[in-house]
Specification:
The protein is α+β, with helices and mostly antiparallel strands. It folds into 2 domains: about 180 residues, no CATH class; about 120 residues. Helix content is about 30%, strand content about 25%. It has 8 helices and 15 strands. The strands form 3 sheets. Strands 4, 5, 6, 7, 8, 9 and 10 form a 7-stranded antiparallel β-sheet that branches. The chain has a 6-stranded mixed β-sheet with strand order 2-3-14-11-13-12. A two-stranded antiparallel ribbon has the order 1-15. Strand 12 and strand 13 form a beta hairpin. Helix 5 crosses helix 6 and helix 6 packs antiparallel against helix 7. It is elongated and about 80 Å long. The two termini are about 30 Å apart.
């Protein structure tokens, strides 16, 4: 994902700045963008749940949340529907490989969904729509529209997703971005060809796990019995009990996570561990999966879900490779 030092927390920047690319993979946002050039990564997906046609299917404690089906749209040759307007900027959703102008229809950000089309440099293109030159608020509707465009384009193209709120002032500014970062974009597009991201979050019931640990660990069980039967102060005994429980929970969590990563290693291209969210989550991971091994990956996740009856799994995707693309651009002020 085209990435900045701050994800999802864009800073407005002046429209007069021009981006200039550094060597592949690492990119600060173009200065013309009203928000940083940064893939609209998992944070946006955490904040906004995609609407679905019905309750997600549940198999035991494995919940698979698929990307909701979008109306099938074939990219069509671009026609000049939206002439450039001096009062409008260009919102950039993603970068793809394409040598011919394409139209993806009215999918983009706006009260009336904006028409999405491509801006080209050589054999790569930015998928864009017209937008007012303002900082876009990350409202539910706006973030969903941003994701909807990326997911629609992803059905037929390998994409580098841009951060939510990436706005350029002119068509020429986008051309300059594509020109200056051409090698970096091309390198990433080649590496991400026919690959998707899947998310896997693992949660547990801490109290239930503690009860299981107490049953299995003789020292902890004995100490708990002493605390229950002891008269007077039990402060030091409770402190020791708490330390033993914390150590046992940490060891068990690490064991579960290691086993899950090892089980999925041979059906994924790469994996990334993100920081768990909240007390119940012990694993927050992203997996890069090749198109031709998607079914094998799906079957393996289901197998894991049936194996660990004490754990709850939340499985999402396919997504654009938010966690596996990191392009930084160096900005220089245009003269």
């Amino acid at each position: 994902m085209a990435k900045t030092k701050q994800k999802q927390k864009p800073k407005p920047s002046k429209a007069a700045e021009r981006p200039k690319a550094k060597p592949p993979v690492k990119a600060n946002p173009p200065a013309r963008a009203k928000r940083p050039v940064n893939a609209s990564g998992p944070a946006a997906r955490e904040r906004v749940e995609r609407p679905s046609a019905g309750p997600p299917p549940s198999r035991g404690k494995l919940e698979r949340v698929r990307m909701p089906p979008t109306q099938s749209r074939s990219a069509r040759p671009e026609v000049d529907r939206e002439p450039d307007d001096s009062n409008e900027g260009k919102y950039v959703y993603c970068i793809i490989k394409s040598e011919r102008p394409l139209s993806f229809g009215a999918l983009g950000i706006g009260i009336e969904p904006a028409h999405c089309r491509t801006v080209h440099y050589r054999d790569i293109a930015a998928v864009v729509s017209n937008t007012p030159m303002v900082v876009q608020d990350p409202t539910r509707d706006n973030v969903l529209a941003h994701q909807r465009v990326n997911e629609t384009v992803m059905q037929q193209h390998t994409v580098i997703p841009m951060s939510f709120g990436t706005v350029f002032k002119t068509h020429d500014d986008i051309m300059e971005l594509l020109r200056s970062a051409y090698e970096a974009f091309t390198d990433v597009l080649n590496k991400m060809q026919d690959k998707f991201e899947f998310g896997l979050k693992v949660l547990w019931d801490r109290d239930q796990i503690i009860r299981e640990i107490e049953e299995e660990d003789e020292d902890i069980r004995r100490l708990k019995g002493e605390i229950s039967s002891q008269k007077g102060s039990t402060y030091f005994a409770r402190m020791q009990y708490g330390r033993l429980i914390d150590v046992a929970l940490q060891a068990r969590s690490e064991r579960y996570v290691l086993e899950i990563f090892e089980t999925l290693r041979d059906v994924s291209v790469a994996s990334r561990s993100n920081k768990p969210i909240g007390d119940r989550m012990i694993m927050n991971a992203a997996f890069l999966v090749a198109r031709d091994t998607e079914q094998a990956f799906d079957a393996r996740v289901k197998e894991i879900g049936s194996r660990y009856d004490m754990l709850t799994f939340k499985y999402t995707g396919p997504w654009p490779p938010y966690n596996f693309v990191n392009i930084r651009l160096k900005l220089e002020r245009a003269h």
